[in-house]
Amino acid sequence: MGMATAKTIIGQEGQLAVAEDKKRQYAEVMQGVLQAFGGDFDLLALLFCIYEEDTALIMLNWAVENFEAYWKDRQFNELFSGVVDFVSAVEAFREGIPSCASIWGHFDVKPMDQCLATTSNLHEMIKVVEEDILLNGVSIAHDLSMATAAFRAG
């Protein structure tokens, strides 16, 4: 069956499932090669770790872009979107930890989970007062500005 026929019969979701199955098979082959030379880590977990953590990095980039737009335009929606994107980036990072654990060792996720649990009502937690941003009543404008600049500076 040709690719055009396969696309018609199994659709995009089916193609993605096939692609994931092939990735798994290829990773298992390379895992065997790695083990033949004394390597001892879960290559498939590494691939999933990279995929999941890449998602977190993309979301972090969106947060920085929104923070920079806020400093330029002073539009609250950009600030709020930046905070939401940052929290989403941390959540995505947290979701990737199980896949990464076999690569970089044990990590106690309880403190991170406790912190993330407090972010369920971001609309109530964030206030803009004149030229300042308050998160739970604490000024964060200067810290956000410095963190954004440091991030861009490398």
Protein architecture, described:
The protein is mainly alpha-helical and 154 residues long. It folds into two domains: 1-40; 41-153, no CATH class. It is built from six helices and three strands. The protein has helices at residues 3-36, 43-73, 76-104, 110-117, 122-125, 141-153, and strands spanning 126-129, 132-135, 138-139. The chain has a three-stranded antiparallel beta sheet with strand order 1-2-3.
> How much of the residues is beta strand, in percent?
5-15%
What is the approximate shape? elongated
Helix fraction by DSSP (H/I, runs of at least 4): over 70%
User: What is the domain tally?
Assistant: 2
> Would you list the SSEs in sequence order as H and E?
HHHHHEEEH
Major pleated sheet: 3 strands, antiparallel
The total of helices stands at 6
Placed side by side, the strands forming the largest sheet appear as: 1-2-3
User: Structural class, from secondary structure content?
Assistant: mainly alpha
Beta-strand segment tally: 3
Radius of gyration: 21 Å
Low-confidence stretches: 1-10, 12-16
The overall pLDDT average reads: 76
Spatial separation of the terminal alpha carbons:
49 Å
What distinguishing features does this structure have?
154 residues, mainly alpha, disordered N terminus
